[in-house]
């Protein structure tokens, strides 16, 4: 009826796949699929009549599918449903009444498929770990020493190089490396069995544990082991030739000399030969496809080199091991409080805490006011951080951040508090960072080298700069009085030209974001869209807030939705991007109260919490609160879905 009368099918998908029983039924079916097919294969071997029955039914069916193909159909359903809904969305106009239901249906299907995949991966990892224990002398309990469930993170075959105390290569063996959430295990393959068709791999081999170490003591580095004070092979060979000449000269001495004898020189030559062989072995090892593992031995550190078939596999292992070690740090153990203890949510992995820095050490009363981070080159992040204690002085620090270090490279003072920052590189001319000041001006600083001041621009109304957004060759500046100014930089110059200003609301803009060729902003309780080509307001729409007069505080766009917070509130609100219909409201006060009482039961939670920061990225929504908590929620990954 929905399709005949309204051309609407999205609600049918939502109603069918939003029920918890769907996840339970499909999860059991998918997880037991391989076991069921193994039983069918064994039964066909033992009972020819059963095999004849299956062949007869296949030949008489219209699809000609065998039992495996028929049982595979439900497993293939979800990817097919997702592709159907995506195809429908491409052909559905934006103003059609089925647009939003289809987007919600895509969200439901993706969420369900993601949970099914997580359940299946979890069950497969548990089965692989059980098979490893059954087919080896490895003895592992189901829980780690600190009470966590032991989980298999990764396993794979590679070659292991064993070095002696001199660092020389002694032997190379094919090994199985197993990584759990608390240890790294190496097993030798003692008996390679013949695989049967359709069977698994690991469970058919026999293994013997060579070593196992906790992740807290294992050190993993990229590339082969490097000796301390290693010199080039050419230098070692040159020294070897000189020592041989010295040995001949010492041999021809007519009288003895204290400390100078042939055995002493021979000992130096023997030691040098060991270093030369070690350098030759290191040079022969592929640097781009091996890692070095070190862990404490009985007397000294034990070194093992693991050689992978491909460098991409090495990179994957390095990443997984480093994250597993990070997850075992005290700051990440039991650091996340889950508001929902369901099985599906327990499989979701929260972010890992890496490090914290003191924003300022010389100014005790200073507080962080704003910050901006960008990547000038791959794997390097520049973080600009502004701290202030009043409106007349601010300290701006620049941090240079890579994977393994954080360094403060520059500090400067400015004579007004900084309200916002933006990195802008128009026409690929000059990399610079712009500071929006409380005093009503813009300051431009070089983001490379000396970080010197390049420009100072006064706003047309002398109002405080509240927000900035750089888009292509234009810089949009939102002011406290509700004015939005547009600036541009002519090609080949360092000047900033004022283009025009428009009034977008009675209050300051709380967000600016280019979406589908339009500039979106929020002023008060209104969402304003601006035509960037003509720089004119296109529309002004009010957000639904149950009749309350609220002011928008923070906004982030995810897919086809807008996550919005209001001033002095602790609620997360999800609005549809096209219709601005409110789809979801999440009150975080109870979650914060439960967490606070669980961690610090003696501390009163009477103070009202507020959301002070909101950002989305890596398919996660992160919200910071006024009492120092970070809340994280997973988001859909498919474009076009609604991020419920």
TrEMBL record:
One matching Pfam family: RhoGEF
Instruction: Quote the cellular component terms of the Gene Ontology held in the record.
Output: cytoplasm
Q: Give UniProt keywords alphabetically.
A: Guanine-nucleotide releasing factor, Phosphoprotein
Please list the residue ranges annotated as the DH domain.
Answer: 1-119
Keyword Phosphoprotein carried by entry: yes
Per the UniProt record, the source organism is: Ciona intestinalis (Transparent sea squirt)
Q: Which SUPFAM superfamilies match?
A: DBL homology domain (DH-domain), PH domain-like, WD40 repeat-like
Q: What is this protein called?
A: DH domain-containing protein
> One GO MF term, please?
guanyl-nucleotide exchange factor activity
Q: Which InterPro entries match?
A: ARHGEF10/ARHGEF17, DBL_dom_sf, DH_dom, WD40_repeat_dom_sf
GO biological process: one example: positive regulation of stress fiber assembly
